[in-house]
Amino acid sequence: MASPLTPEQSVDLLRTMLRMRRVEEQVMHFGEEHEGLLRGHYHVYVGQEAAGAAATAALGPDDYIWTTHRNHGHVIARGGDMGRTLAEIIGRADGYCKGRAGTFHVAIPDKGILHTSAIVGGCLPLAAGAAYAAKVKRTGQVSLVFFGDGAMEEGVFYETINMAQLWRLPVIFYMENNAVSPGERPGRGSPTSEHAATALSDVPRAFNVETRVVDGTDADAVYQTVSDFVARGRSGEGPYFVESRTTRWPGNYGSFPRLVGGDTDIAWTWAPENAPEAVRAWEQESDPVLLLARKLLAQGTLTRDALVELDRQVREEAAAAAQFALNSPLPAPESVFEFAYA
Q1: Could you tell me the fold of the domain covering 7-325?
Q2: pLDDT-derived band of residue 210, with 50, 70 and 90 as boundaries?
Q3: I need a surface site. Which of 31, 109, 320, 340 has the fewest CB within 10 A?
Q4: Domain map of the chain by residue range?
Q5: Between 304-327 and 82-89, two packed helices, what is the crossing angle to 10 degrees?
């Protein structure tokens, strides 16, 4: 098993998680406060920050990340610029894909995010393909693919995991199950009303794929698990499967995500009883950002004043990023055929 996070790594990870949270809050402000700014549906990654940040932190700079309709958090976790990410989400010319990708398809090839697929399960074969190329070329790269529990209802999941195991590909299947209650998170696996398996983690085991169930709100547990799999993947082993278990943020219920309790108040770290009733229980038991912050306060790694200052800095970054995105122009009409191939 990999070494636990150092205090410095834990603080860096908390900063990343705060960036992820504040960016997603800005996305929802865009949706709620601006008419037509976000065209079409959008999803947010609130409540899963420890999973994305810690798993990504375990990778090297040349490894691949494949993501889904909840891609914003993974992009920020990988070091994506907050302003360019928000600009892309609202379809502006200064975005990573010059406004052509929008909220569902943000990609940063130079950071190993070659493509984002909003199709359920669409990222899985792409991740296996990249892992196959890495194995053939002997580059030592690992392919980490994030997907939700719903992707395990798709045929492409079974085709991909079967081929990955037959060919022993260096790919880590990271399934983010955000539909479990707090008391179930550390368990061996979760049942679901939409899948016949007793536990979703039993499915990859049927393909003889090494599988671990991890509390997706525990940044240190996620980091150690993925670090171990990354190291073994580089040595020619793989594939691996992780079921990362989180509890869905209350604002993610319904047709569109909503800031049902407002922006996260960092003071809820030590006073969760002050959170609005709509999110109070979740903030107390399931918010990965506040859970890590409480841990660092309890360890003496951070003081309250240091935590407040860290959050203030991130809030300023997010506000500046949002303004950058809003100030960015729409793509010029005459550029419509650029980057189009037929």
Answers
A1: Rossmann fold (3.40.50)
A2: very high
A3: 340
A4: 7-325
A5: 50
